[in-house]
Every structure is written in C-alpha cells, then in structure tokens.
Amino acid sequence: MSNVNLLVVSYIGAWNERNPEQRRALVARTWTERGSYVDAHRQATGHEAIDRMIATAQESHPGYTLRLVSGIEAHGTYLRFSWEGGGTREAPLYLGGTDFVSVAKDGRFGEVVGFTDAAPAAS
Domain containing 83 — which CATH number? Predict the structure, then answer.
C-alpha cells in the first residue's frame, strides 16, 4: 500500500480546497478514476462527480474546514480515520465523523464510506 498518511492528507485537502483546479487535482491524486464516496447525505462516483459533490458541500457549509483528529488505522487494504469540522466563529456548528476506505491496487482510494459521529440535531 502507498503512503497512507499522504493519501489521507490529500483527501482532507480535497475537502478543504476552494480553488476548483487545485481541488480537481487533489481528487485525481486521491481517488481512482472510478473511485466513489458515499455517506448518509451524498454519494458520487468518478473524479468529476466527487469534485462536484465536494464543491456543493463547500457551498452549503461556507467557512468549514476539515481536520484529521485521529490516527490512521490500516488493516490490509482498508483504512479508518476520524475528522472534525466547524466549532469556530466562521463555522459555528460542530461536525465530526469517521471514514472507512478501501485502497485500490494503484494506491489510491477505491471507495470511501463516511459516517457522521457528531452533528447538530435535526430540526
């Protein structure tokens, strides 16, 4: 498996990158061409769809950035790590989650399945 630390840094970077060209480059560096992301609120397959999904999330949550808040646990070709966002003056609502990842043969993410661990209560 490739350097999982760099891969996860690239992943978090893609979610935080507001420049469309740089974000697309991070998406391509992080996911395979047919890579996917799914959680309870969104899903996307392929670089273009993942980039659009991240851009939409950024538009709906201005000011938010994600931070890695756990170690990266690797087991075979699978990873698990936790992140948080918000809880700041610019982004007051706190969000936190854990992502589970399958790493493809080329060393990039094949599939990411995200779970929300902390979020504001539904109104």
Answer: 3.10.450.50
**Which structural domain, as residue segments, surrounds residue 71?**
4-118
Contacts of 117 (CB under 8 A, 6+ apart): 82, 96, 97, 98
Give me the residues paired with residue 78 across strands.
75, 102
Q: Would strands 78-85 and 109-118 be described as parallel, antiparallel, or unpaired? A: unpaired
Residue found under tokens 């560096």: 29
Cα angle for residues 59, 4, 73 (degrees, 5° grid): 95
Strand-pair category, 95-103 with 31-38: unpaired
Residue 123 lies in a domain: no
107 backbone φψ class: left, alpha, beta (φ>0; ψ -120 to 50): left
- The model's pTM: 0.91
* Nearest-angstrom CA–CA distance, 100 and 36: 12
| pLDDT, tens only, 28-57 | 999 999 999 999 999 999 999 999 999 999
Both tokens assigned to 56: 């939409």
